[in-house]
Write a structure and sequence with these properties.
Length: 342
């Protein structure tokens, strides 16, 4: 539910392309009791349910900048996304060597952790059943424990001292710091998320109720879930297009963008440019178009990022440089802080 709340919602909308993957068939995916369909969605602690959900932040080539296991509050998620955005600039900078990039990756993750507010840390305490899971597997999960002597002195599983465990934000950043700029296909998600229980059941499916609720009694989430089925379009062999048609189709979106821009229809122009980028994502033209629309709409960080991407892709137009400079002037205080922190 935090994805649809501010400030995470605007951050995701303006700076990221969002997608999802059903992990039901993955070995690291967790299981739980069935939450009633008419039950309320509620906030929980940061990092709760690491096996059920992972929020990956990646570059276009699949390089992992960050991975947030489990639930995260909207405010804390937005802050983590901002940090990941800084890492994306480092990854794309061809002037920085690979070893230096790895060092900066580690430094930024650990500095971000050091600057977490007391309120964020308080929102990131371990769930009781996860703390017990770490206690029972203390040898394998020793990196989740801050006071090993206190843990070794525990005699009652139900009286494990919370202060002896690291908070989930600390576990997350310390583990990410050892995985600099890994590709998603090589990322060890199972090991990375291994601080929590694989199965947890609050007993919600045992509550008395009508037929829909009773039908779920004794069931688990995994037993009633199905893998996502992606519909495939029928394979149709297209006929050869008339001469000159292909070139004309390439010009359709830019021409439409110009027409919308002349009318001051910037939201429509932004969507037009976004559509063109999806079809021509390796070409700078679409990013220049979207940068202009974003600047007009007040999305200054988006405008700066798109102009920078256009230049990185080899744009020779002065408009890209001008757009980036104008966006930077709007973001000057923020850009200064980001540069200083790096």
């Amino acid at each position: 539910m935090s994805l649809s709340q501010e400030p995470a919602f605007s951050t995701l909308r303006n700076h990221f392309v969002c997608g999802y993957k059903n992990i039901l068939q993955e070995g690291y995916a967790g299981d739980s009791g069935v939450h009633p369909l008419d039950g309320n969605a509620v906030n929980t602690t940061n990092g709760a349910g690491p096996h059920n959900l992972q929020t990956f932040v990646m570059t276009a080539d699949g390089t992992v900048l960050h991975c947030l296991p489990g639930f995260w509050s909207s405010e804390d998620l937005a802050a983590e996304l901002e940090m990941a955005e800084k890492l994306s600039y480092i990854w794309q900078d061809k002037a920085i060597s690979s070893p230096d990039k790895a060092d900066l990756f580690k430094r930024i993750h650990l500095e971000h952790l050091k600057n977490h507010s007391p309120e964020l840390v308080a929102r990131s305490h371990l769930q009781g059943f996860d703390a017990q899971h770490i206690y029972k597997n203390s040898k394998e999960l020793s990196d989740c424990i801050s006071d090993k002597e206190a843990i070794s002195a525990v005699e009652d599983l139900h009286k494990v001292p919370y202060d002896a465990f690291k908070t989930t934000d600390k576990i997350m950043h310390e583990r990410m710091a050892t995985r600099p700029f890994q590709n998603y296909n090589a990322f060890d998600t199972g090991t990375y998320t291994s601080y929590g229980c694989n199965h947890y059941d609050k007993g919600e499916n045992e509550m008395e109720g009508g037929p829909p609720t009773l039908a779920l009694k004794g069931k688990t989430l995994r037993s009633v879930s199905k893998p996502t089925v992606m519909a495939e379009a029928p394979q149709v062999r297209p006929s050869a297009p008339p001469a000159g048609r292909k070139e004309k189709e390439k010009e359709t979106e830019p021409q439409l963008f110009v027409a919308l821009a002349k009318q001051g229809l910037w939201p429509e122009a932004f969507r037009c440019a976004d559509k063109y980028i999806k079809a021509q994502f390796t070409q700078p033209g679409g990013y220049e178009m979207r940068s202009l629309a974003a600047l007009k709409l007040g999305y200054y960080q988006q405008a700066y990022d798109d102009a920078s991407r256009a230049l990185w892709l080899g744009s020779k137009h002065s408009s890209a440089t001008i757009l980036r400079a104008r966006a930077a002037s709007k973001l000057k205080p923020l850009v200064y802080r980001n540069t200083k922190s790096l």
